[in-house]
């Protein structure tokens, strides 16, 4: 759709929307348990910490957080020491948390679909932009740090 903002949080909202919709349309595909609910809250909490911690580094470095913008700094500190895409990782974790909290088989499929979408549509092109902007420094970072985990 032309003019529609192509942003990772919108893809994430779509995955969450499918989970909630599926709960009502195909209730037999859900298997809620107390243990899954507890695990989902743990994953949710961890994802929120990662998300906030990651976003702080964009503001510290004064570089755009939005995809499709040219970076002004290469962030290699904080959560970026462990993952090149901690914000995307957190969005996938939030989808997994929702899927587990609702006991949704479809939700797990949505988490995989979101991961694939974020990896191909955002992470890979962003890495090319980092290569162009930061050259050898970006290549060294890519060698030292995994894309996801």
What structural class results from the helix and strand content?
mainly alpha
Overall number of domains:
1
Mean pLDDT: 94
Number of helices: 5
Shape: elongated
Indicate the multimeric state.
single chain
Strand portion? under 5%
Describe the sheet with the most strands. none
Which features would summarize this protein structure in a list?
single chain; 149 residues; 5 helices; 68% helix
Task: Characterise this structure.
With 149 residues, this protein is mostly helical. It has one domain (11-144). Helices cover 68% and strands 0% of the residues. It is built from five helices and no strands. The chain has helices at residues 8-25, 34-61, 86-101, 105-134, 136-144. Helix 3 packs antiparallel against helix 4 and helix 4 (105-134) packs antiparallel against helix 5 (136-144). The two termini are 32 Å apart.
Fold blueprint:
Layout: H1 8-25, H2 34-61, H3 86-101, H4 105-134, H5 136-144
Summarize the structure.
The protein has helices at residues 8-25, 34-61, 86-101, 105-134, 136-144. With 149 residues, the protein is mainly alpha-helical.
